[in-house]
Design a protein that fits this description.
Elements (H helix, E strand, L loop, with lengths): L6 E2 L5 H9 L10 H6 L7 E5 L2 E8 L2 E5 L8 H14 L6 E5 L1 H9 L3 E7 L5 E5 H6 L6 H13 L4 E4 L5 H16 L6 H15 L1 H4 L2 E7 L2 E12 L2 E9 L6 H13 L5 E3 L7 H8 L5 E3 L2 E8 L1
Parallel strand pairs: 4-5, 11-12
Antiparallel strand pairs: 1-2, 2-3, 3-4, 5-14, 6-14, 7-12, 7-13, 8-9, 9-10, 10-11
Helix pairs in contact: 6-10, 7-8
């Protein structure tokens, strides 16, 4: 694509992305450099900075799609025009947008030069919880969760929460590899799972550079669960990854609770990302009673005015 000069995402780009994200209030979990970096290879994601706007494109099966541009709202109408021009000059028959927040859908709706077909993307909508709910687990709606966590404390009284440091990353990799080997037997051709493993190990290679917060559960001298995330906006933290030994009953409940309690108690909200349309994951995320969903949308150009 030659209207705007795109390039691959590299670690050195983090400072630029962070500056743009912090200038606004984005609720979408996609609005973090860590997430973009982790999944850049799977979608062949590229980026460009042009006239104060960051543009992001991805490619699946030879078809391009553009993510929501990053920049001030007053630049979005011009950004839409540039994207349409870009697709046209590159001979792309279909102009597609993915991962859109409501405010950008509104920008598309009022764009005077084209009509768009908008569709909700439920499988990629983010689950957002009150941090206080995940910490306190108070009330009838969390009765089962509270009991589950208490049972873990009873069964494993020596279990200890630790922040992720370089010293325990090798053990976190072991948890990841064991989780992967167990699930690979069930889904040997799962491209997403194979890529996730590589992406998490890559983040571990550069954990300090990404300035993430991470936590782990130590039991009997061995790490049995880990997680990591970062601040998404002024009042929200996003959890990028959470893995645990499935043979340790309650390990997921413990790392879920302890990470928020120890690292994110000052945040109002916790974004735990999407369920990807997986029924088991959807049930697990719904069971923690999200206070809101961050809807994501897709859009397709259906005609120029």
């Amino acid at each position: 694509m030659n209207v705007i000069n795109f390039k691959k995402i590299e670690k050195a780009d983090k400072a630029i992305f962070d500056k743009f994200y912090r200038a606004g209030y984005y609720e979408n979990a996609y609005a973090s450099f860590t997430g973009l970096y982790m999944w850049r290879e799977l979608g062949k994601t590229q980026w460009a900075l042009d006239d104060g706007v960051i543009y992001l494109i991805a490619e699946w099966n030879g078809k391009f799609a553009v993510f929501q541009p990053i920049g001030s709202v007053d630049k979005m109408q011009n950004a839409i025009a540039k994207i349409i021009q870009m697709f046209g000059e590159c001979g792309q028959n279909e102009v597609r947008f993915v991962g859109l927040e409501k405010f950008f859908v509104e920008e598309l709706a009022k764009y005077p030069g084209a009509d768009f077909e908008i569709s909700s993307d439920r499988s990629n909508s983010d689950y957002v919880y009150l941090a206080s709910d995940l910490i306190n687990l108070s009330g009838r709606k969390y009765h089962g969760k509270k009991n589950h966590l208490n049972q873990f404390r009873k069964d494993y009284p020596t279990a200890e929460y630790l922040p992720i440091t370089p010293e325990i990353i090798p053990q976190c990799r072991e948890v990841l590899n064991n989780w992967y080997e167990m699930h690979r037997a069930e889904n040997p051709d799962d491209i997403f799972m194979n890529h996730e493993r590589r992406a998490i190990n890559e983040i571990f290679d550069n954990f300090g550079e990404f300035k993430l917060k991470g936590g782990a559960i130590l039991l009997g001298g061995k790490i049995v669960a880990f997680t990591f995330g970062e601040q998404l906006n002024s009042d929200t933290a996003v959890i990028h990854v959470e893995k645990a030994d499935p043979e340790i009953r309650g390990a997921y409940a413990a790392i879920n609770h302890d990470f928020v309690a120890q690292e994110w108690s000052a945040m109002t909200y916790i974004n735990r990302e999407e369920d990807m349309g997986l029924e088991g994951l959807r049930q697990a995320k719904e069971s923690y009673r999200p206070v809101k969903m961050i809807d994501k949308f897709s859009a397709r150009l259906i005609g120029k005015v």
